[in-house]
Structure formats: structure tokens, C-alpha cells
Amino acid sequence: xxxxxxxECTKNYEKYIGKNVSYWQGLADKYQYESxxxxxxxxxxxxxxxxxxxxxxxxxxxxxxxxxxxxxxxTTPLVAYTFSLWPERxxxxxxxxxxxxxxxxxxxxxxxxxxxxxxxxxxxxxxDDKRLTKSLWELFDESDVIVGYNGLxxxxxxxxxxxxxNGFLPPSHYSVVDPIVTAKKVFDFSSNKxxxxxxxxxxxxxxxxxxxxxxxxxxxQEDALEEIRTYNQQDTKVLxxxxxxxxxxxxxxxxxxxxxxDEVERCPHCGSVNIxxxxxxxxxxxxxxxxxxxxxCGYRGREKKSIVSxxxxxxxxx
Length: 318
Prior knowledge:
single chain; alpha+beta; Nucleotidyltransferase, domain 5; five-stranded mixed beta sheet; 11 helices
């Protein structure tokens, strides 16, 4: 959604909030959306992406909260001697050249700037990724939360490996949120590839490429290096959209409340103050709690105080 459409949607939202006025269909017709639900959904996703809270008083920019880094890396292939095209176990003495980081892309959640770097032809020739590793280490060190697709099994571990090899100590503590974990545990998509999930959810897509791009990068071709950088940047944008889309389904997520100094009730998943109370009842084996629903990200959680009386709790067996 571009700035003009977003600003007009926002203006109408603030003007008519709490009033029984229908304006979404008119906006859908004006900007050629399929329906009022289509443009309203697109605006809500864009508002989340830009870091706005919706509430009964209007819409406002989020302030404070955790520093959440959306990131992705590309690595060089491992080069080795092999006696067959079929799968075989390659021993370490067959390795000609080990992998290292080729490029990275990162952005802070809700911010427009996409930070990215790629190796120079000379750095590739020397297999020297220390410059990129230093930049990544500084971003990790600044982060409260890191979001990476398959980040737990690949990106974060690969970065840690290069941190160690290049002589860096561990960065400051951060939590890792990996959307593929939610994709595997909560859903049953036919494929858990990020691009497939994005397609199913009608989000932006990855840039199509093949191994020839990595081959040309290894040859130090500058146009290929710029191409891999663009490819990497798009992956980060796609990841941010996917992360925000499945955010209410993520079971384990760092609690945003802990990153604010005030005493305001906020959604633990996104920091919104647009909380709807008593939207259900959450029952455990021995207790019941009132549920709440975030009006922005859609997360459903429970309050801390039980609604089971002391008398009733004495009769509950397990």
C-alpha cells in the first residue's frame, strides 16, 4: 500500500472512529480494491508494518518497546572434491574451501531503512568476511529480539560460527523468534518454505534466482554481487511481512511489556494498548483465567489473576 492510500485510509479511520459511518467501500472503489474487507485488511497490515497502534482514540506511532531485528544472510557454497553426483559422505580432507558469509540484510521492525552489505570481489578472493561479520555482530549486540526464518538452525548459528572464527566475543543477550517453528508446530502447510507461506498468505514474494547467481558471485562479478544484495534485501522485507502476519499465532514470544518503563497494560506480542478484555475463558487443569485479545495484532492471551474462588479451588481434583 503506497503512502497516498495509507494516509487517506488513516484519515478516514481517525475521522469516523466510533461512529456508524461506512467509508471502506468508497475507498475500495476509488483505489480499485476487490472489496471493503480487502482494503481494510491491507491498511491494517500496513499500519502494523509502519509501527502504529490502533485504539478507541485513533492511531498513534509506537514508542519504546524492544529493538527487534529482522535479518537474513547469504553464505558462499562449500567447495569440495567428490567422486559422484549422488549423495555421499564428504570427509573434511576433501574440502577445498569452506563457507563464509557472502551478504546480509537487516532492518529494525517498523522502520523503513533496510541495512545490507555484500563482500567485494577482493574479499571473496581472500574468503574474508570480517567486515560483514563486524557489522552483524554490532546489530546483534544492539538487539533485544532477532527474527530469522530458520534462524535457529541456520542463520544465527552461522553468524555465531563466523563471530568465533573472526575473534568476536558473544554479543549482548537477545531472544530469537523463528517463524518456521510456528509454521511447523501450529500449521500444516504443504511446504514450510518462506516463499510458499508468503504466496499462501498473499504477501510479497521472494525474488526468483538459481545457483548460477552464487557461482557468479564466487567469480567476483560485481553485477552478481549487487544482485545477491537486492535478493537478500527482498528476503528481509518478505520476512517482516510474514512475521507480522503470523505474530498472533506465535506461542512463545518475548514479552513487550518488559521493555517499557510505564505501568500501562500492553499486548505482550506487539506492545499495543488496544486490549479487549474478557473475550473468553482460558482453562488449565486446575484454574480458569479471563482471556484478552489484542485489537492490533490479534494475539489472544490470558490475565494473571484466576477467576476460580478459593472455595471452588479446594474441590478441584487432578
